[in-house]
Predict the structure of Nicotinate-nucleotide--dimethylbenzimidazole phosphoribosyltransferase.
Amino acid sequence: MQASLNHYCLSIPPVDRQAGQEAARYLDTLTKPKGSLGRLEAIAVQLATITGQVKPRVSPPGIIVFAADHGVAEEGVSAYPQEVTAQMVRNFLQGGAAINVFARQIGALLEVVDVGVAQPLEASGLVSRKVRYGTANFLKEPAMSQEEAVAAVEAGIERAEALIKRGIKSLIVGEMGIGNTTASSAMLAAFLCGEKIRGSAELDTEVIGQIQGVVGPGTGLEQERVNHKRSVIVRALALHRPDGNKPLDVLSKVGGLEIAGMAGAMLAAAKHRIPVIVDGFICTVAALLAVKLCPRVSDVLLAGHRSQEPGHQVALSLLDKEPLLDLGMRLGEGSGAAVAFPLVEAACRMIGEMATFQSAGVTDGEGA
Ligand SMILES: Cc1cc2ncn([C@H]3O[C@H](COP(=O)(O)O)[C@@H](O)[C@H]3O)c2cc1C
Ligand SMILES: O=C(O)c1cccnc1
C-alpha cells in the first residue's frame, strides 16, 4: 500500500467502548421498561462508542455521492447506457434525483464528486476530482493502476474531511456509475473466495458457483443478460486473479473509482469518529474495502437497509451487520441510507431527550 494511505489507516483510532457501557447504563435509567426500545437502544450504544458521547448527535448528516464510469459497461452488463452516469450527475446538481429528495427530507448537506466520469464535466456545484475518464474494461485489462486506485481513495478522504470540517455529525456515501454492480460483484467475489481465486489453478465449479451467486440484475437485467454478466465477471477474475487479502489489488484490477472514493470517505469518518450509515450493495462492497484497509472502520458502520440485489446479503454477512430497513429498494445513490437516517436520529433523540425515572418522578422497576 502507498505510504501516505497506509499512514492514514494506521492513524484511525479505536472506538470508545467505555462510553458505550456508560450509555447502556444510562439507557436503563430512562422512563421505559429496560430494553423496551429494542434496536434503537443498541444503536444509541453504538453511536456512543463511536462518538465517545453518552448523548451522541447525528444531525446534520452529510451525503457525498461519488460518480464514475466503468469500461466494462461496453460488455453490455447494465440495462442502461454509460451516458446515464453523466446525465444523472446533472440531475443530482439540479436537485431532481431520489437522493436529492431524501437529502432535503433529512436536512443533509449533499455533495456530488466526479472521481471518474467518462466525459468532461463542468457544472456549478460539482466537485471535480477526476482521477481518469472511466476505468478500463477489466475483461481485457486491469480497471486502473494502483496509483489511480489510491488517488481515488484519497479523494474520498479529502471530501469527507471537508464535510466533517463543515460540521456534519454523520455520513452517508452514495454512488452513481453505470456498470458498478458488475465491479462490485467482482470485488465481492474476490473478497469472498480469497485464496481460491488468487491461485493459478483453473477456477473449479464450486468457486464459479460462488462467484455467480453474488451477481444479480443491477438496474434490471433480464435473466439471460444476468448470465452474460456472470460470465464476464468469472472471466475477468480468472484473468486477473486478484488477491482478496490485498484490497488495493482487488480495487485496481476489478473495482471502480467511485467505490474507491466511498471507501476513502469511510476511512475519514472512522478517523474523525463520525458514524457512517451504509447504503446498498455497492456501498457495502466499498465498506468491505474500507474494512480490509483498516478493520477499525467496521465499528463506525451502521447498515441502513437491505437492497434487493442478491449479493447484498452476502456482503452484509461478511461485514457482520444487520440492516435497519428492508424495503425492496435497489437504487443506490445513498438512498436507502438516507431513508434509514430518521431511525438513527430517533435513537439519538431518545437517549438525548428522555427523562429519567428520577427526574420525572416515576417509580422504576427496582421496588416491584
Ligand atoms: C436512471 C438511473 C439512476 C440511478 N441511480 C442509481 N443507479 C444505480 O444503477 C447503477 C448500477 O447498476 P448497473 O450495474 O446495472 O448499471 C449505478 O449507477 C447505481 O448507482 C441508477 C441507475 C439508473 C439507470
Ligand atoms: O443496492 C444497490 O446499491 C444497487 C442495486 C442495484 C443497482 N444500483 C444500486
